[in-house]
């Protein structure tokens, strides 16, 4: 129930907010600021909660703190290298890896695991389709399995990346067929999957045609040359000029 209450805070269910609404910062007279890299924000992430719930207890044998790389068939890159590639500390990476190893002894996570995770955190809706899209966004190589390295690099972008990095990641999520363009059909599929996952635990209650209206408003702003698709440049330029979209980047952790 606690997870459901947290989700209710998201008014429209999208990853990028609603370009048709008055920015929260304008309503309150507060200038938008990039989210701080807080542990509280980190702990709201479904994927992080899933991993850390399986991590070894604090104070366990010291050999655990060295990650016991030989205990798994797929060994991650050196921690120092991962620390350089992400914005996680070495201690955070150790905790994440222990949980990852316990849940995925092979060192790889598959799509079924993603679906299980999101069905547990969003029991009031159907998370199957969204988990599928999210998994494909993490699975950059398209081989049906995600390595620990790719997993934490993606998490680092989503939770602690710059706005530009998060927007590029969001574009990749919406670009379902990975052809470098976002179509209305692709964006609508993502929007619908998020609404389906969140069920009716949104405020205000959403109408059935809300996802389509949302997509129409986005394309009216983003598709500058009106060719029916949105490029990465159009996406980045439009999003970074829209104060409401920028503010909503703080809501990433609600559906990740």
From TrEMBL:
Major localization listed first in the record, in broad terms: membrane
InterPro entries, sorted: EF-hand-dom_pair (IPR011992), EF_Hand_1_Ca_BS (IPR018247), EF_hand_dom (IPR002048), Recoverin (IPR028846)
GO cellular component: nucleus; voltage-gated potassium channel complex
Keywords: Calcium, Cell membrane, Ion channel, Ion transport, Membrane, Metal-binding, Potassium, Potassium channel, Potassium transport, Repeat, Transport, Voltage-gated channel
Superkingdom, taxonomy of origin: Eukaryota
SUPFAM superfamilies xref list: EF-hand
Repeat in keyword set: yes
GO BP annotation list: regulation of potassium ion transmembrane transport
Any Pfam family the entry gives: EF-hand_7
PROSITE patterns: EF_HAND_1, EF_HAND_2
GO-annotated molecular function: calcium ion binding; DNA-binding transcription repressor activity, RNA polymerase II-specific; potassium channel activity; potassium channel regulator activity; RNA polymerase II cis-regulatory region sequence-specific DNA binding
EF-hand domain span: 126-161, 162-197, 210-245
Region (Disordered): 1-30
Annotated localization: Cell membrane
Family: Belongs to the recoverin family.
Protein name: Potassium voltage-gated channel interacting protein 3
